[in-house]
């Protein structure tokens, strides 16, 4: 029996941070990227890891600055953690923050493995992430190490110096440039990403105030979304998420989703048939699910219909009623609008 291929997903938040940094510091615009700008408004959405890695390589090419990811991690402050600011920064001590950050990484990307090794007086934070495009590996390693260093700096100050950082890739930039950005020795071509620091530093208590504008509580919907990232081999859930992702590029097609999963359309179709479901069924479920999520906003039903790939509201209404037994307007008025007033 053929081994099932794995498809890795990441949160759109990471792409948004990369693009915002590239536009702010290198003068790039949204037209320089192959990502619909309105997708970046939905940081909780999932996108294929391959698309994020392509973005990492593209930004390096456009900026002609191979150290841009290292600079990003040391300039973004708390914004680097996006919706997780409150979760991390409200930790009473660094040890708690590290545990929470490990959970955050697993909520941001599938296929991540993290552990903490203690060797005498040295703590070694290690993260292993899957890589599909070899050229992107070093940038993924830098982002992981840099985000962890930023957490250490959050508790110990911006001038904090870890013992060493191990990066999974070839040296980048001018001689000593990355070392200067991270303020510590760098070990290149490591089999995985590691940050070494003194064990005693783990007990550091929180001694800073949270910047109010950056601290927002999770909604129940957001918390559930972060917990429900599909496993790399869970083909049904992955296709479901990728059809929702493809809505930002147009109506979902078998060819689009199969390409994002790195397989031929007929192969994907057969694997879905083996599980007694068709691609069309998944598309209908994902479209209706996306529409329901948008119903809690102030968008008109016409706008929602267009957002989920329908040219007119009537066609969308027929498809929605076939799935739920009521029209989108009835569903919104009965189940969505009353809950907003609770």
TrEMBL record:
Residues 233-334 form the HTH araC/xylS-type domain. It holds the Pfam family HTH_18. GO terms for molecular function: DNA-binding transcription factor activity; transcription cis-regulatory region binding. SMART domains: HTH_ARAC. GO terms for cellular component: cytosol. Keywords: DNA-binding, Transcription, Transcription regulation. PANTHER family: HTH-TYPE TRANSCRIPTIONAL REGULATOR GADX. This is AraC family transcriptional regulator. It comes from Aliivibrio sifiae.
């Amino acid at each position: 029996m053929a081994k099932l291929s794995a498809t890795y997903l990441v949160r759109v938040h990471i792409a948004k941070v990369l693009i915002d940094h590239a536009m702010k510091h290198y003068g790039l615009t949204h037209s320089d990227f192959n990502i619909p700008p309105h997708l970046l408004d939905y940081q909780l959405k999932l996108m294929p890891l391959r698309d994020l890695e392509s973005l990492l390589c593209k930004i390096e090419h456009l900026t002609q600055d191979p150290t841009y990811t290292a600079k990003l991690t040391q300039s973004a402050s708390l914004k680097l953690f996006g919706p997780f600011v409150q979760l991390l920064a409200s930790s009473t001590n660094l040890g708690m923050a590290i545990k929470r950050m490990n959970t955050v990484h697993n909520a941001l990307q599938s296929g991540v493995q993290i552990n903490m090794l203690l060797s005498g007086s040295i703590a070694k934070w290690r993260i292993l992430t899957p890589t599909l495009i070899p050229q992107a590996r070093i940038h993924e390693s830098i982002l992981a190490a840099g985000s962890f260093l930023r957490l250490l700096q959050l508790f110990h100050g911006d001038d904090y110096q870890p013992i060493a950082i191990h990066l999974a890739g070839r040296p980048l930039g001018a001689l000593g440039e990355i070392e200067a950005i991270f303020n510590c020795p760098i070990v290149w071509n490591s089999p995985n990403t590691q940050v070494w620091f003194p064990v005693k530093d783990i007990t550091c208590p929180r001694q800073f105030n949270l910047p109010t504008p950056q601290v927002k509580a999770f909604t129940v919907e957001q918390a559930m979304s972060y917990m429900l990232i599909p496993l790399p081999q869970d083909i049904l859930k992955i296709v479901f998420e990728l059809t929702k992702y493809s809505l930002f590029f147009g109506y979902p097609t078998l060819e689009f989703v199969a390409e994002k999963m790195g397989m031929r359309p007929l192969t994907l179709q057969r694997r879905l048939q083996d599980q007694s479901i068709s691609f069309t069924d998944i598309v209908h479920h994902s479209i209706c699910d996306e529409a329901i999520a948008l119903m809690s906003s102030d968008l008109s039903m016409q706008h929602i219909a267009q957002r989920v790939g329908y040219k007119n509201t009537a066609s969308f209404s027929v498809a929605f009623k076939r799935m739920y037994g009521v029209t989108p307007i009835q569903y919104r008025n009965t189940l969505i609008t009353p809950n907003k007033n609770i």
